[in-house]
Specification:
The complex is a heterodimer of chains A (358) and B (565). Chain A has 2 domains: 165 residues, D-Maltodextrin-Binding Protein, domain 2, CATH 3.40.190.10; 133 residues, D-Maltodextrin-Binding Protein, domain 2 (3-Layer(aba) Sandwich), CATH 3.40.190. In chain A, helix 7 packs across helix 8. Chain A has 358 residues and is of the alpha/beta class. Chain A is 41% helix and 18% strand. Chain B has 23 helices and no strands. The two termini of chain B are 41 Å apart. Classes of the chains: A alpha/beta (358), B mainly alpha (565).
Chain lengths: 358, 565
């Protein structure tokens, strides 16, 4: 039809390929070296705030990359902007890995827009290893519990995601008091496990040593566990009574849902695993003064109070009454991320596979 | 003479534009994906190096065989269920005098717009042996000791996935059924074949291209679905392919996109085989042509008393696939936390969740962004699909199938890979679309082009060549034929594809999350964040709002349509 046999799509495809390759070759890499902001990052003088404010006024903007959802990130940014109205904050908030993935893609593509980044430590560590972070000083480092701090000062904790025992109050009448209690036969069939909470196994091994931890989880694995995927799903299942209890649910979610009247409660276990959400300074920050001013603010009493009001388990000493007395086991993902497969397999072998119902 | 040259020029321009756009859209992620499968990730001073480990891992993993069985069972089961349910509804709606059928399109939009996680959770609340509403009611009614249904099973997974995709099957098949010349069915009925026989011997074979296209898409979607396997499969101990991909991508350091990409190469092979079968089955393109030069009026079949039966099926489908989960979501959206549906709990009813949704930063602007993007992307996809299929089906150019295959392959690209590929490219290309709505548009067109291509391909097969031949004979150029003849004829069946692609865009998440900018947030990102913040109730409120919004839009369009005609 149409007498168009002359047009050969194959040939066309080939030539477009050639043009495309030539285009790719043309794409050049622009070089931009991060400037020397080390001195500023470590400045401890009495006029610190003044210096930062002066500098931030000139910079006039700030770009915050936050792996904390927009709803919880926004109030702190608004508070900051109210206090320092001359800085226009550009908040890029998201959840999970996506923010750090983007940040890394941008930095590697030499698009240096980010000033600060906050996220779970595994993501912070990924960015650090690529050499994009700058260690810094912030006044809160003198006040916070030393065990919450990074000795190398690459990040500052702004809140913790704490994993603990959460249960449905209609289903469970006498919650456990210790981790050993969970091995009691009466827990058979009543306990759920989130299938990606390897952090539990990793930190207990660190605390107890391999032999004791392995023994504990082997015995726990025989408790007829229910396997669940995702903490949000797990939380809904707990509230609905589909599962009775779990050893690894987020404390802040449990607190928030308990407040709405949902039939759930939590136990402050000894210890509880705490995964810090840390804020870090980019070494390519285009607005270093504003960035440090923001870090100072987020970790200050004022900024932390805003985070606390959003229901987060904050790091500021004494602000979170529930955590005052708690024994927190601070998770350091830097130690386990290189051989994560090892932990993943062990977690699966001990807890997941023995409980497959098929 | 010069006129002829003009035709050739316009034809050439049309061809070149289509080829360039298709290659531009599909080859970037494809090459990136293939690169990922044979190179180690570049991280922290480790340069990328060549490896075949990913392929080794995929093919030598003894667990692969085991999950292959589960994945196949899940994909085939849910596809067949979706086609049977959606197909039956499409036939009832388009070919019979069943009362209430005009509402079918609107009603089918509801599950389409809902994110999989919400409907899946709703089904847990309905069919769980412990708390499932349906189980509790049936147990009470029939004095049963044990729950009759268990959602935590392969059957449960197939049920949820099949119902979730039935509206897609409905929309696709309704389009082709409507375009079908009723004479053929009538001829069968007149010659004494019953309704069943005319269905089996005429309707089904004639619509084979559409059904095969549908089947191919559904199988691939079933193989790559993760929501149902995560929420239902993992507690039930049923592992599928995607659980492995999930592990590889999210937990390992450095992030192992390579393994995910390798699995998608496997999916590509499956798709390739599917396409080959499709080409074989549709080789005699004229045998599917139901739209000919002869005029006909779309008439409905009078099914007589059978319409009570079809009405029954209709009601059953609507209540099972749409109303049941919707009631759960509505209930969840007005309660502070998940609680049983009973009179005593009505005192808890509140609009708090809706207020929270509206207070969420940026929710309104992301709804507007989503609307714009989904309309533009769907329009491009439908047009591009027709252009590609016109070259393949009508012009029958040598090598035209390359375009068809290229246009179909993105079906198997994982969203994350598309996201990373586009971000990597546009961060380096100095044209400044990174972080803007443009890059999202490109991502959407890439991800969902296959739906446009497959639908257009099967639609065009139904248009008899005599129509275009007549146009060509009267001296119309190729482009003119396409615009004046082909486009109007297939448009009615492409409306469904347009609507469907819109809902896909609205729900798309994995590629978007890596590409959106502060000014181009979309609703799926919003929903994911809310879901992570563990408020099923607020997510349901957002879901209900999305349904209301879309229904209003659909009603408006309907009014507009009736006015026009």
């Amino acid at each position: 039809m149409f007498g168009l046999r002359g047009y050969k799509i194959g040939k066309m495809v080939f030539s477009v390929c050639l043009v495309g390759m030539a285009l790719c070759a043309w794409v050049a890499f622009a070089f931009a070296a991060p400037s020397g902001i080390e001195q500023l990052a470590n400045y401890k003088g009495k006029d610190r705030e003044q210096v930062l404010v002066e500098g931030a006024k000139k910079e006039g903007a700030l770009s915050v990359y936050s792996a904390t959802n927009a709803r919880d990130s926004r109030p702190v940014v608004d508070g900051f902007q109210k206090k320092y109205p001359f800085v226009k904050v550009n908040l890029f908030a998201g959840t999970g890995e996506s923010v750090s993935t983007r940040l890394l893609m941008e930095q590697k593509g030499r698009k240096y827009t980010a000033d600060t980044f906050n996220g779970i430590l595994k993501d912070v560590e990924k960015v650090r290893r690529e050499g994009f972070l700058l260690p810094f000083y912030t006044p809160a480092q003198d006040i916070y519990n030393k065990k919450f701090l990074d000795p190398k000062r690459n990040w500052m904790p702004i809140y913790f995601t704490v994993l603990t025992f959460v249960y449905n109050t209609n289903e469970i009448k006498d919650p456990p008091r210790t981790w050993q209690d969970l091995l009691d036969p009466k827990w058979k069939g009543k306990l759920a496990v989130e299938d990606t909470d390897e952090v539990w196994l990793i930190n207990f091994t660190k605390m107890w040593g391999e032999a004791k931890a392995k023994d504990y989880f082997t015995r726990l694995g025989k408790q007829d566990l229910k396997i669940v995927h995702g903490h949000s799903v797990q939380q809904q299942m707990l509230i609905a009574g589909e599962i009775s209890s779990t050893a690894t649910q987020y404390l802040h979610q449990a607190i928030a849902d308990k407040k709405t009247g949902a039939p759930i409660n939590f136990v402050i276990m000894d210890p509880m695993i705490a995964q810090p959400n840390g804020i870090a300074l980019m070494n390519s920050a285009p607005h270093p003064h504003a960035a440090l001013l923001f870090i100072d603010y987020v970790t200050s009493k004022e900024g932390q109070a805003l985070m606390y009001a959003r229901g987060r388990n904050v790091a500021y000493p004494g602000m979170e009454p529930i955590l005052n007395e708690a024994n927190l086991l601070i998770d350091d993902p830097g130690l386990s991320m290189d051989n994560f497969k090892y932990w993943q397999d062990m977690f699966k072998d001990l807890l997941i596979t023995p409980n497959k119902r098929r | 003479m010069s006129k002829k040259r003009g035709y050739a020029l316009s034809t050439g321009a049309f061809l070149i534009i289509t080829v360039i756009v298709v290659m531009f859209i599909t080859l970037v992620p494809l090459l990136f994906l293939l690169y990922q499968t044979v190179f180690t990730p570049e991280y922290a001073g480790h340069a990328a190096r060549f490896t075949l480990k990913n392929y080794g891992d995929v093919f030598s993993d003894p667990a692969t065989l085991m999950v292959l069985k589960n994945s196949t069972e899940f994909a085939f089961g849910s596809s067949i269920l979706a086609i049977i349910m959606g197909g039956a509804m499409a036939w009832v709606t388009e070919r019979t005098h069943t009362p209430g059928r005009q509402w079918m399109y609107l009603v089918n939009m509801v599950p389409l717009i809902l994110p999989g996680i919400l409907t899946t959770m709703a089904w847990v609340f309905l069919l769980s042996p412990k708390i499932g509403l349906v189980n509790l009611v049936v147990m009470k009614l029939f004095f049963l000791e044990e729950a009759p249904f268990n959602v935590y099973s392969m059957g449960g997974m197939i049920w949820i996935q099949g119902l979730h995709w039935a509206p897609f099957a409905f929309i696709t098949l309704a389009g082709t059924f409507r375009a079908m010349n009723p004479d053929l069915e009538e001829a069968a009925t007149v010659s004494g074949a019953g309704i069943w026989n005319s269905l089996r011997l005429v309707t089904l074979p004639l619509n084979l291209p559409a059904i095969l296209s549908l089947f191919l898409i559904l199988i691939v979607r079933g193989l790559e679905n993760f929501v149902v396997p995560a929420v239902i499969g993992i507690p039930a101990g049923i592992d599928v392919f995607t659980s492995r991909i999930y592990e590889a991508v999210t937990k390992s350091y450095p992030t192992n996109l390579g393994l995910a990409s390798t699995y998608s190469v496997v999916l590509m092979i499956v798709t390739g085989v599917g396409l080959a079968l499709y080409y074989m089955a549709t080789k005699e393109s004229s045998s599917f042509a139901t739209i000919t030069g002869k005029g006909y009026r779309a008439r409905l079949m009078d099914v007589g008393r059978w319409r009570y039966l079809t009405f029954g099926i209709y009601v059953l489908y609507v209540s099972l696939a749409i109303l049941l989960p919707l009631v759960i979501l509505l209930w969840v959206s007005i309660t502070p936390y998940s609680m049983a549906i009973k009179g005593a709990n009505f005192k808890f009813a509140t609009l708090h969740n809706y207020r929270e949704v509206l207070d969420y930063p940026g929710v309104i602007s992301s709804m507007v962004n989503t609307l714009y993007l989904s309309v533009v992307a769907s329009l491009i996809i439908v047009l591009l699909g027709i252009m590609i299929s016109f070259i393949v089906v009508k012009m029958k150019l040598k090598g035209g199938r390359i375009l068809d295959v290229l246009g179909t392959m993105p079906l198997t690209f994982p969203g994350t890979v598309v996201g990373v590929a586009l971000a990597t490219l546009y961060l380096r290309l100095p044209i400044g679309i990174y972080g803007t709505a443009w890059i999202l548009l490109i991502a959407f067109v890439t991800r969902f082009l296959p739906y446009g291509v497959r639908a257009a391909n099967s639609s065009l097969l139904q248009v008899h060549a005599e129509l275009e031949e007549a146009a060509a004979m009267s001296g119309a150029s190729v482009v003119r034929t396409l615009i004046m003849i082909t486009l109007p004829v297939v448009l009615s069946s492409m409306v469904g594809t347009f609507i469907y692609v819109m809902t896909l865009v609205i729900r798309e998440f994995p590629s978007v999350i890596l590409l959106y900018g502060p000014e181009s947030r979309v609703i799926s990102v919003q929903l994911f964040e809310m879901w992570e913040a563990a408020s099923f109730n607020q997510c349901s409120a957002l879901g209900v709002m999305m349904i209301l919004f879309l229904s209003a839009l659909a009603l408006l369009m309907r009014r507009f349509q009736t006015k026009e005609s």
